[in-house]
Specification:
It contains 9 helices and 16 strands. The chain is an alpha/beta fold and about 300 residues long. The strands form 4 sheets. It has an 8-stranded parallel β-sheet, covered by helices on one side. A 4-stranded antiparallel β-sheet has the order 5-6-14-11, with no helix packed on it. It has a two-stranded antiparallel ribbon with strand order 1-2. Helix 3 runs parallel beside helix 4, helix 5 packs parallel to helix 6 and helix 6 packs across helix 8. The longest helix is centred in the first third of the chain and has 15 residues. The two termini are about 25 Å apart.
Length: about 300
């Protein structure tokens, strides 16, 4: 096995040269980061959420730092399906034609999700869809679809019926028990899972005596949530056979391997991109050295080793 392919991972619809994927909402559509490094270094990009119509998002302020992470209440701001199909995805395809894109799809109603899923796979570089049923920052849709197993399964079936590319479902940690939801979307023929989305949180301004965020609550991300993410991924990996793209507080090659130990097959990097725009290529460069340190020949072998250990 060559040094170059020991990082490669094959997932439904995705032939990744390495497992590192900037998480949706933390990388927009790549234009800004492309000024700093060649996006071809990445395994894939989960682009910003796409809704059927443009969304301005929530009122400001909608971002606040915490001691070990960040609260955000962006509210799925995006220019809408038409602009993304006409401008954003073609720009990525023109400049990075070999880079597989994962399109994050969100909506307020089932029909919204279905309409976007039916169209967005027409883009030649969109190789998979991440169905966002877990955004905590919208009043309608989003998390409402991700907290009830039956509702989640019905949405997945409807979207799967029209999608031209494999469907990954993004699960919420803001539920009493994530396992029935994971099993329900697997039974509804989801091709994979991505997990976890942010945890609900709030901060207060001592001077104003009011919440810092205009939305009051926001989603907590960053290093603080990594142990929660690892726990939930490990829990779900015990009961499903579809692959999991893990995320939540990842900022180093060691974090990536921890995600694999929990049961992930690829890893998304979110909040760390804001602190260091080079964090993804740094992790990719560091991974082989850390794998050598722990005697890991390849990530595909590691995935199989972790699966076998659970039998």
């Amino acid at each position: 096995m060559t040094k170059n392919n020991r990082l490669s991972v094959k997932l439904p619809g995705l032939d990744l040269k390495n497992p590192i994927i900037p998480a949706s909402g933390c990388f927009a559509f790549g234009e800004e980061y492309a000024k700093y490094y060649d996006l071809n270094k990445l395994g894939s990009i989960m682009v910003k959420a796409t809704t059927l119509h443009p969304r301005f998002g929530n009122p400001t302020p909608r971002v606040a730092e915490t001691a070990s992470g960040m609260l955000n209440a962006i509210g799925l701001q995006n220019p809408g399906l038409e602009v993304i199909m006409a401008e954003k995805l073609p720009w990525l395809n023109e400049n990075f034609p070999d880079l597989p894109i994962i399109a994050n799809v969100a909506g307020s109603e089932e029909d919204d999700y279905v309409a976007v899923c039916a169209k967005i796979g027409d883009a030649p570089n969109v190789k998979a869809i991440e169905l966002n049923i877990s955004c905590p920052n919208v009043k309608h849709g989003g998390q409402a679809f991700g907290t009830d197993p039956d509702v989640a399964a019905a949405l997945v079936k409807a979207c799967k019926a029209v999608s031209k590319v494999p469907l990954y479902v993004k699960l919420s940690p803001n539920v009493t028990d994530i396992v029935p939801i994971a099993k329900a979307v697997e039974h509804a023929c989801a091709d994979g899972l991505t997990m976890i989305n942010t945890l609900m949180g709030v901060r207060f301004d001592l001077k104003t005596r009011k919440p810092v965020l205009a939305n009051i609550t926001g989603g907590l991300s960053g290093p603080a949530i990594k142990p929660v993410a690892l726990k939930l991924i490990h829990q779900v990996a015990q009961v499903v056979d579809i692959p999991i793209i893990g995320m939540g507080g990842v900022e180093s090659a060691q974090d990536v391997l921890e995600m694999y130990m929990a049961g992930a097959s690829a890893v998304a990097v979110g909040t760390a991109n804001f602190a260091d725009p080079f964090v993804c290529p740094k992790i990719i460069e560091k991974l082989p050295e850390v794998m050598d340190q722990y005697g890991i020949d390849s990530l595909e072998n590691l995935i199989q080793e972790v699966k076998n250990s659970k039998k």
